[in-house]
């Protein structure tokens, strides 16, 4: 495997890290959600070119765990934090935060909310001005996720998430994330919205088509996104994705020198 060629500045940092001259930064807990709809198609956002991390890359909705994501006041339906901890190979507090962050970030970045008034219901529409005000307040940290759900009489539907993968940003990067990937089906009645923020373009795409665009150099995919799309491309429909057995194994690409060039290699 030839791996992904590192740009000169990152290659220099990689050599420093490998030689012990630079200490890797701590990876932050994060969650990413692959939204699915029949096709199957996935929801992708292109990160703005001005972003400090993964600029210009097509990614799934997601982001870092906020301290308030671990709030025990978050109304919860579906598998418990303890059950998620076993699936995600994390302690209960981390698992709670990851699941909450997955749902919160999906709402912030797509307008889709995996929550409902009860354990068997889901919100049918999140497109009104009042929903938009809440979404912006969550992004600005003016509103906590627990408060948001409580005020609307909603419970987090953790059963709508399926754990998919676990990726850690390489040690050579200056911004690092310890990210759990989930998949979820777009709830009936809801629709994604181009809500701006960190993305300048959004698209629904069949996994195989997204991979083809990446191979032609028309879009940029980071290794975790590429691997996830490759796995999803082997599924005929959404039901097959949800039924696919998953053993959550940690993957962290590593920088290696190949023929004088520093490359990222995924084992």
CATH class: Alpha Beta
Structural class: alpha+beta
The CATH topology name reads Nucleoside Triphosphate Pyrophosphohydrolase
The beta-strand count equals 14
Distance between the termini: 9 Å
The fraction of residues assigned to DSSP E strands is 15-25%
- Largest sheet, if any? 8 strands, mixed
Count of all domains: 1
Task: Report mean pLDDT, rounded to a whole number.
Answer: 91
The percent range for helix content is 25-40%
Name the helix and strand elements from N-terminus to C-terminus, one letter apiece. EHEEEEEHHEHHEEEEHHHEEE
Question: Uncertain segments of ≥5 residues (pLDDT<50)?
Answer: none
The CATH architecture would be: Alpha-Beta Complex
Please identify which CATH superfamily we are dealing with.
Nucleoside Triphosphate Pyrophosphohydrolase
Oligomer: single chain
Shape: globular
| Tally of DSSP helical segments | 8
- Specify Rg, calculated over alpha carbons: 19 Å
What does this structure look like?
It comes from Nonomuraea salmonea. Its cofactor is Mn(2+); Mg(2+). This is NUDIX hydrolase. Residues 26-227 form the Nudix hydrolase domain. GO terms for molecular function: hydrolase activity. By secondary structure, the chain is of the alpha+beta class. The chain has a single domain (4-265), classed as Nucleoside Triphosphate Pyrophosphohydrolase. It is 31% helix and 25% strand. It is built from 8 helices and 14 strands. The protein has helices spanning 8-19, 81-88, 92-110, 129-139, 145-152, 207-215, 223-233, 238-243, and strands spanning 4-5, 28-37, 41-47, 58-59, 62-64, 76-77, 115-116, 155-157, 162-168, 177-185, 199-205, 250-251, 254-258, 261-265. The strands form 3 sheets. Strands 2, 3, 4, 5, 9, 10, 11 and 12 form an 8-stranded mixed β-sheet that branches. α2 packs across α3 (92-110) and α6 (207-215) crosses α7 (223-233). The longest helix is centred in the middle third of the chain and has 19 residues, at 92-110. It is globular. The mean pLDDT is 91.
